[in-house]
Design goal:
The structure holds two protein chains of two kinds. Helices cover 7% and strands 37% of the residues of chain A. In chain A, strands 2, 4, 5, 6, 9 and 11 form a six-stranded mixed β-sheet that branches. Chain A has a four-stranded antiparallel β-sheet with strand order 3-10-7-8, with no helix packed on it. Chain A is mainly β. The radius of gyration of chain A is 16 Å and the shape is globular. Chain A has one domain. Chain B is mainly beta. In chain B, the strands form two sheets. Chain B has a four-stranded antiparallel β-sheet, with no helix packed on it. In chain B, strands 3-8-5-6 form a four-stranded antiparallel β-sheet, with no helix packed on it. In chain B, a hairpin with a 5-residue loop joins strand 5 and strand 6. The model of chain B has no long low-confidence stretch (mean pLDDT 94). Classes of the chains: A mainly beta, B mainly beta. Strand 1 of chain A pairs antiparallel with strand 1 of chain B, so a sheet runs across the interface.
Chain lengths: 163, 137
């Protein structure tokens, strides 16, 4: 049953709302961010350049954090690493930035763990161009330590841009 | 079933400064780029320490939400969301759904939380939230 409402129509048209069961993206990929040293509070950990995820090529539509209960380990460019646990994830956030390195969106890591949100995905539709290498992870507390044995593993879904 | 899509988001906080007392209001900390009445808010999500241990400004997040009510005011001083329990604004308490609002221009520093029960709330902690918004055309 679909409720007909001008407000809901507006939210749909403005891309502020989306059906939970709809397409998350035409393609999806895993992006890993392994840590080279022990993580420190307030430091910005940037992703490696990834042209696939730059807005000129593809638009990101959904981001999921793969935690250690979803998938224990990830194979990264630095070798096999442990994915973050929930207690580690509550300590940090993902920052999406535009080409001027301005922060456009802040998303705590915990809310991107899909299994903890009753399976609801975290949709995004950033109105500005994103350069993936300017996006970063930052931790604001480290009661549960994170070091070179760990990595942040994101599953990113996206649509190609038709030029 | 529908859920919110993030267009732009920024974290805000309500610091429990001074003593924590029932009925007391704690206003949102000013964020310059959100305080020019230039943003239309269409969603909001709150966090306790279970979702976010510490705010980006380094304050400890409150450990409980059951003693806190949230009020949002728009740029006309209207309290369009009045004393909504913080518990209902936490995503994981709502099967992963984020609370959507009718888009409004808010006055951030007029928005506040009210303490209704001081149990497990401590001075200096922060009520943390993520504001989902778009810019005014």
């Amino acid at each position: 049953m679909r409720i007909v409402s001008p407000l809901l129509e507006y939210l749909f048209a403005s891309k502020m709302m989306k059906q939970v069961g709809s397409y998350e993206g035409e393609f999806t990929k895993i992006v890993n961010l392994p840590f080279a040293t022990t993580v420190t509070i307030g430091e910005q950990y940037y992703f490696n350049p990834d042209e696939v995820l730059d807005s000129k090529n593809n638009k990101i539509r959904c981001i999921e954090l793969i935690d250690s209960s979803t998938n224990a380990n990830s194979l990264t460019s630095a070798g096999g690493r442990d994915n973050l646990s929930t207690s580690q994830a509550i300590q940090g956030s993902l920052y999406l930035c535009n080409t001027k390195r301005e922060i456009i969106a802040t998303i705590p890591l915990y809310v991107m763990i899909r299994r903890l949100q009753a399976g609801k995905p975290q949709y995004v539709n950033i109105p500005e161009d994103i350069i993936w290498q300017t996006c970063f992870i930052q931790f604001d507390s480290l009661t549960t330590g994170i070091n070179q044995a760990h990595c942040v593993s994101l599953r990113v879904s996206y649509f190609p841009v038709t030029n | 079933m529908n859920n919110l899509v993030i267009k732009r988001s920024q974290q805000i906080q309500f610091v429990l400064s001074g003593s924590v007392a029932v009925g007391r209001r704690y206003f949102a900390t000013d964020i310059p780029n959100l305080s020019r009445n230039n943003v239309v808010v269409y969603g909001i999500e709150f966090f306790t320490a279970s979702q976010q241990a510490t705010t980006p400004t380094g304050l400890t997040c409150v450990s409980t939400s059951t003693g806190i009510a949230v009020t949002l005011r728009d740029n006309k001083k209207q309290e369009f969301m009045y004393q909504v329990p913080m518990f209902t604004l936490i995503r994981s308490n709502n099967a992963g759904l984020i609370v959507l609002l009718k888009p409004r221009i808010i006055n951030l520093t007029d928005c506040y939380v009210t303490v209704t029960n001081t149990t497990s709330l401590n001075a200096g902690e922060a009520v943390s939230a993520n504001l989902y918004y778009d810019l005014v055309d």
